[in-house]
Design a protein that fits this description.
four-stranded antiparallel beta sheet, globular
């Protein structure tokens, strides 16, 4: 836990990292831009960030408006979560701009009409910035940022132990499509039903965020998430090309026969405690006669300025099947 002392700094009431680190923006390791069929997924575990020096450095790279928003949060945990979320976005995007000398502090952001954040390159000195897209999602125990090139992306993360105040089916009837409600209703085991509900919710959140609209402009009842057997090479994780999950598709409730086929999904289980859903626009190489290109996914756990770890193909990352 930590307490803010004033608008510029705070201290922590817990022990710092046992190792000695030198915190500097130069410690951000440059990362090659993702290919057009690739998604980079970065995440941070707030409980692992325990250094007051490091948290103060994160605060220093935020814009004045971001600092104000962080500091007005009620409660130490909410402040820390908001701080880490903004710091993760800034340090992640800056990694892809190192050769252009873009620092995390200099990045500017704007929102679309629905409130989805975007990088604002309009007044930047780099006249040809890469067309990066990003999206962020967080719980109290995990914060994630997804990055793609030239392709809209939406992500969502949820704790597997998350509960709802209402009965699962009652909640689903309020927000989900008839097919999704029916799929959940045939599951007799309450815990399995709850887990499948969370998977659907996470995927639907990622989809509306990829659309750039959010829940209010794209109600969950207006579309259905379906699972079907994966085609060969449908999805693979860097370092583990044999990993596959059920193919996930979305269809409009207005015309169930029409599949919205220009979106790709991935549903992951992270650290055994969270579900993470990724939705990105497909990179279609039909001009070269190859058809839709399978998604490639690279997952990294990070503590910005301290360490990065590629976890793809490890036990901490599992591709999840469908209902």
């Amino acid at each position: 836990m930590f307490s803010f002392l004033h608008m510029a700094s705070f201290t922590m009431k817990i022990h710092c990292f046992q190792r000695n680190f030198s915190f500097s923006s130069s410690a951000l390791v440059p990362v090659q831009l993702p290919s057009r069929m690739e998604t980079h997924f970065w995440y941070i575990l707030p409980d692992e960030v325990k250094s007051a020096t490091l948290l103060n450095q994160y605060l220093d790279i935020l814009s004045p408006c971001e600092k104000e928003n962080v500091l007005r949060m009620h409660g130490d945990n909410l402040k820390k979560s908001a701080l880490l979320a903004r710091a993760l976005v800034r340090t992640t995007i800056a990694r892809y701009q190192i050769n252009s000398q873009v620092s995390p502090t200099s990045l500017k952001f704007r929102k679309n009409i629905y409130g989805k954040p975007e990088v604002d390159w309009q007044n930047h000195y780099d006249r040809n910035p890469p067309p990066l897209h990003f999206n962020i999602s967080h719980t109290s125990s995990l914060i994630a940022c997804g990055v793609t090139l030239d392709s809209p992306i939406g992500i969502d993360v949820e704790e597997k132990q998350r509960t709802t105040k209402n009965n699962i089916l009652s909640f689903a009837r309020r927000y989900f499509s008839p097919h999704e409600v029916e799929s959940l209703s045939v599951i007799s085991d309450p815990e399995i039903q709850r887990q499948e509900f969370l998977k659907l919710w996470t995927l639907k959140e990622a989809y509306v965020k990829a659309l750039g609209r959010g829940f209010s402009a794209a109600p969950f009842k207006n579309f259905t998430i379906r699972f079907r057997a994966a085609t060969k090479g449908h999805l693979h994780l860097s370092g583990n090309s044999n990993s596959k999950a059920s193919e996930i598709i979305v269809e409009s409730s207005d015309d169930p026969k029409t599949l919205t086929s220009n979106w790709q999904f991935a549903l992951l289980e992270l650290t055994g405690s969270h579900y993470a859903a990724i939705c990105k626009e497909k990179y279609d190489d039909t001009v070269e006669g190859k058809g839709g290109v399978p998604m490639k996914l690279t997952v990294r756990k990070t503590i910005p300025f301290v360490e990065d770890q590629c976890i793809s193909g490890k036990d901490a990352l599992v591709l999840v099947g469908g209902l």
